[in-house]
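for the writeup, i need someone to sanity check this before i put it in the appendix. the sequnce is what the collaborator sent (i think, or maybe the updated version? ugh). structure was predicted straight from it, no edits. if anything looks off just tell me and ill rerun, i have time this weekend
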Amino acid sequence: MSTTTFAMSSNARLSFSAGTLTLERASRAFAESLLPPETWVWDARASLWRCDALQYPKLRERMAMGRWPLTDDVPLWKPVSWPKSELHTLRADQEAAVAGWMKTKRGVVVMPTGTGKTEVALTIMRQAAVSTLVVAPVRDLMYQWHRRILQGLGFDAGVIGDNTYRVRPISVTTYDSACIHMERLGQMFGLLVFDECHHLPGAIRRDAARMSAAPYRLGLTATPERTDGKHSDLDWLIGPLAYEMKLSEARGKVLAEYEVARIPVHLSDEEQQRYDELSQQVRQFVADRRQNDPSFTWETLCADSGKDPEARRALRAFRMKQAIEDRAEEKLRVLEDLFRLHAGSPVIVFAGSNAMAREVSKRFLIPCLLAHCGKAERLEVLTGLQAGTYPALVCNQVLDEGVDLPEVKVAVVIGGMASTKQARQRLGRILRKSGNARAMLYEVVCADTNESKRSRQRRSHETYAGTKHRKM
């Protein structure tokens, strides 16, 4: 770098502004000596250079390499003193996860559900001892983190979300709230903890990482893979893989041994007739459209449904066909048999829709948890399940991930999406180890329907190897 360039930039200032870093009173050559040219954007209105706030760690590394004439006004995070430290003693695998992350203080920890990722994160937070923001996918998890931080580290964390904006050196929030408020919070926290971090690479949610200058980042997940392939973006949004534990390594040791049983059921004659009629209606519509447009796809049908009555009827027929699969009467009979088989043991039922969840709830008089249920209601239901007040509960997707559940060793899946991620998450709900108790997952599926195909897709992961087929 020439002396002239330094002179031109002798009063350069680096600041945080609305989720970006700004470099004032700096020449192009000086800016490009800190970060590659494609990183910077010239803001002609303010006469300064801008880049994403997440570039700050790279800037710090570059600045540490020499005496750069630059005033750094970015970091507002502070050291934190914990009122107490009452964390569980870590197992060897958890210690390895902490050590793997501490090497660079950035990265993703992948561990199966129930193996203690939260304890790993709390230990890292204790050791980092810096202003920290924990980002969770839903409000329930946000409040769960608040409780765990208070119990383990004695800190009453701030809450940002659920109509609350209380910022403290240690705070908890949701992905949605983080995206909204990170333009103001991006320089206040030195450590970001992204729980269930497979949610982060979404088109909007990634702003929670891009707009923060935090140099230290931790991602936690049991299922990092995404069907859109964007899990690769976790490498630059959070950091590289710091530690990974396979389910096969934890099975029977850290987690309970388990068995998966697939129970096929059949539609009634009336249900089958209606199902076939609706299937033919959808197939005929798609075939007719492809005669004129060979590139016609399902995505095109969905897009056209807003303006084309025929496309709208075809989409409605498809939804009705799904409803028949989801709410087959035979599923309820099998579910009744499973309740009898496991009488005295708490059971979680995973439905494929809110309508089916409500139907199961009314049929068997068990509580139903859906996304719109309030915090107090969810806590009361989960506490009741743990105490034995409720013998079972039914939900749609609200308990698929993250939320701490009472000790349950039996789950029944009567519907869901095709993703192996959802299948593994639901299995993980019953795998917390308790003595030698064995976990049991039942999957009740309509044979000879598209639901059967979705079931095969869900079970394509090695986690479901050895699935047994039963008839009831």
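The chain has four domains: 3-71, 92-245, 258-266+328-469, 269-326. The chain has a mean pLDDT of 87.
thx in advance!!
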